[in-house]
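Lecture notes, unit on protein representations.

Consider one protein chain, 93 amino acids long.
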Amino acid sequence: MIRSELIQKIADDNPHLYQRDVERIVNTIFEEIIDAMARGDRVELRGFGAFSVKKREARVGRNPRTGEAVEVEEKHVPFFKTGKLLRDRLNGK
C-alpha cells in the first residue's frame, strides 16, 4: 500500500471527512514520526510496532567491482521492530 492508497482508504471509511483533511492528517502523522526519529526518539504504535534509530559505526568496506578497501562513514539508520499483534496476524494466530 502506498500513501495515496492509505489516504483514499481512510477517506472512503470516513465519508464525513474531506479528502484534503485526511491527506493533511496522514502527512502530519508521517512528519511527526520522521521528526521524532530525527531527534533520536523511539516511536511506538501499540500492536503495530516500534520505529527507532540505530547507529552504525564507521568501518572499512570493499568496493564490489574492484575489491578495493573503502572507508564507510558512521551513520544512523531507521529500524523497525514488529509488535506482537502484527506478528500474530502475519502468522495466522
